[in-house]
Amino acid sequence: MAEHPRAQLGEAVLVLDDVTKSFGAVVALRSASLSLRAGSIHALIGENGAGKSTVVKIIAGLYRRDAGEITLDGESIDFASTAESKAEGIAVIYQEPTLFPDLSVTENIFMGRQPTRGAGRIDRRAMRNEATQIFERLGVSIDPDRPTDGLSIADQQLIEIAKAISLDARVLIMDEPTAALSGVEVDRLFAVARSLRDEGRALMFISHRFDEVFDLCDTVTVMRDGTYIDTTPVAETSVDDLVRQMVGRDVDELFPKLDAEIGDAVLRIDGLSRSGVFQDISFELRQGEILGLAGLVGAGRSEVARAIFGVDTYDAGSVELFGRQLPAGSPRTSIARGLALVPEDRRRQGLVLDQSVTRNATAAIRSRLAKWGLLWDAAESAAAREWASRLAVKTSALDTVTGTLSGGNQQKVVLGKWLATHPRVLFIDEPTRGIDVGTKSEVHRLLSQLAQEGMAILMISSELPEVLGMADRVLVMREGRIAGEFHRDEATPESIMHAATADEEAA
Predict the structure, then answer these.
(1) Which of 33, 193, 224, 460 is the S-S candidate for 429 at Cβ 3.0 to 4.6 Å?
(2) Which parts of the sequence belong to the ABC transporter domain (predicted)?
(3) What is the DSSP code string of 77-98?
């Protein structure tokens, strides 16, 4: 590892100047420029497809630039591998966790750089002690010895953060690190980020949440269509200005809620319980209604939806769909009767990333498309084309591998997959997690249109503006129970957070 003195407070550590990158005929970066300074948290924002991920991967050594210049502490660099980037003190926390599920938490943190003692043996005690210290610093309780398989997205993300901190990185890049964290966990992460900033490190923070950008960062760079647009001190800009720069137009309605006629109850949940997960859940969902399910991460929201749909089991209670009892543990029956579930973790639960857009979009209806036991390519392509067109999936061809699409377009493919089943009731978990402001507006408009057409929608969301902007009624869960119910005209950030946390001061 080359020896570089730490930059003084305010000095440029990592600089990108007019960097370009193409993949064949596809131009990913036309002109990317960025300057990360010691003791600063710099936001990089832009719609999905703006080039942010390509910038990160070039810095991380996954890609090599085609043109332009990158300097680290004033010296020109061109990383040929991730190992070279890490050796120079650059750590990247990606949007989606990249952990080994069969290894322990500690083994994941120190993968590829385990400390050793006599005879080259791995010093497991030293690894465990350091992992414990890092989690204490983060203020979280995670067993260093447990396998990572089965951990929540929030815990997986925290392990990625611990891995970066263990590297003592001079440059720390965080790509949507808060996407699956609760408010308390976000506050904890921001406290750690600020302490790293105060130590003189340079941080880059990528987020689609403007409140986080304004709360945490001091400088913001905007990209659009692979091109650098502007860099501004956060204190001298506004949300409206940033949105205008990101999308090249004004976005007047992030939450385009259409009037819908709310009809009779189509789904009735009575006393649903699962030991240690949720207790005595009862509610109704009505035709044409968007019912928001709010609460902190870990409150049991996703688990309730999965149990109703049949992915998970429950110990007591009943589910009635369109007046008929819905058997437990049978997703196939749920689908057949008009219920669909768009999961929170689209990459692991909603998509097969190495398959095409067509294959993913038709995954839930393949048996319906088959004739005489045969699945015809033409029928499958026609079905996929219909939903790809309606949802405006940005892809050059339907045979494109889904894993290469942006996060927003992957979300659209998952939506298309389930809407192709023509459901009458839709459960959608974190509908806009990790997608840009323009795509958020498109997803919200689609949900509003579906409700106006008579679909009943249960929307699980950790974003209060989304819940307040889209829901006709809001249920709030806390510690596995329903802690509050609010109609649209009485739901406020304070009332929802009070119910979610039992914080008397929030009321």
Answers:
(1) 460
(2) 14-250, 260-504
(3) ---SSHHHHHHTTEEEE-SS--
